[in-house]
Amino acid sequence: MALPSPARARTLPWSWYWDPEVARREERLFTTSWQYVGPLEKAAEPGQFFTARCGPVPVVVVRDEMGVLRGFVNVCRHRGTPVASGEGRCGTTLQCPYHAWTYALDGSLRSAPRSGREEGFDPSRLGLLPVAVGSWGPFVFANCSPEAPSLSETLGDLPGMVAEAGLDVEGLRFRRRSHYQLAANWKIAVENYLECYHCPVAHPGFTAVMEVAPERYRLSEAPTFVSHLAPLRQRPLQTPYPLEGPVGVGSFHLIWPNLKVNVNPGQPNLSIGPVAPEGPERCSGFLDYFFADTVGDDWVESFIAFDDQVGTEDRSLVEAVQRGMRCGVLDEGHLLLDSEWLIAAFQAYVRRECGG
């Protein structure tokens, strides 16, 4: 694939990483895209539910009595209270804890105390707002836009690429969720994820395991996601976790705008999760870790310790970038397109969707 034009070497204006008005415009990125919301096993049986967020929008995912997976905006139509919290079993209804408005699992309003005293009250117009839901293997996604493309369109060739890396996602099971918060704009966290130019300097453990030289570390761009592939070194410089297993390549993907999908060498594993804004200069995220049933706890613990170390190293980098951009001395930066053209692709996406 041809590299981006030199014009794309100019970064987004650095004010876009702290301006509240830009942050407001960016909210639509998260409400019109497919967001990973949780493991399918948390809504596997009728009456099981879990709650999540699509950017700023709270959602609830539930399995109805007929076995259909459904999603709704988790906001009561009365006065805005969430109708569900956490995860668990709700029986055959979702009930607001404030005034007991009660909804069937198809979202329709079943009862509202004292509503019979109100002339013209029409429960058929006051059901929970639906959101689109779908799954890939054990992963559940939601999209708040009524005009959303299908999940399969958004995933595109990604499931095939993950399979080519040696991973059968149908054999994975949820094992752990890890949360994080960063004192940085969400875009800085995404851009850090999209390049390994910094890996030889900042990630000695990762570099000891993966090939990160430009001629070996492969980058690719698809309409709805971008990818980077890092082969396992033939002779790793160290083994921070046992590397033996059917997965022989590091496979890292970002689904626009903010969803990370990671596969690391070794035993069958995949981590997935979004990074989302918590204001113009802070962000948060989580990663759900999935492993095959055959992967033992010792392997999981050593691998997650390795992954946590990489994350700790990245934290200091992205928070330092936020401070540098915020100082106001420079208006923009300059990308090295041979190594950072996935960042250029991401920034082109943000410009296209948000204007500017």
List keywords for this structure.
356 residues, Rieske Iron-sulfur Protein, Naphthalene 1,2-dioxygenase Alpha Subunit, Chain A, domain 1, 2 domains, alpha+beta, seven-stranded antiparallel β-sheet, 25% helix
Radius of gyration, rounded? Answer: 22 Å
Return the CATH class of the largest domain: Alpha Beta
Spell the H/E element sequence: HEEEEEEEEEEHHEHHHEEEEEEHH
Assign an overall shape.
globular
Q: Number of domains in the coordinates? A: 2
How far apart are the termini? 26 Å
Query: Structural class given helices, strands, pairing?
Result: alpha+beta
Please tell me about this protein's structure.
This protein is of the alpha+beta class. It has 2 domains: 6-29 and 151-354, Naphthalene 1,2-dioxygenase Alpha Subunit, Chain A, domain 1, CATH 3.90.380.10; 35-143, Rieske Iron-sulfur Protein. Helices cover 25% and strands 28% of the residues. It has helices at 20-31, 151-155, 158-164, 186-193, 199-202, 204-209, 297-326, 337-354, and strands spanning 35-39, 48-54, 57-63, 69-73, 87-89, 93-95, 102-104, 109-111, 130-136, 139-143, 172-182, 218-221, 225-231, 249-255, 259-263, 269-277, 283-292. A 7-stranded antiparallel β-sheet has the order 1-10-9-4-3-2-5, with no helix packed on it. The protein has a 7-stranded antiparallel β-sheet with strand order 11-17-16-15-14-13-12, sandwiched between helices. It is globular. The two termini are 26 Å apart. The mean pLDDT is 96.
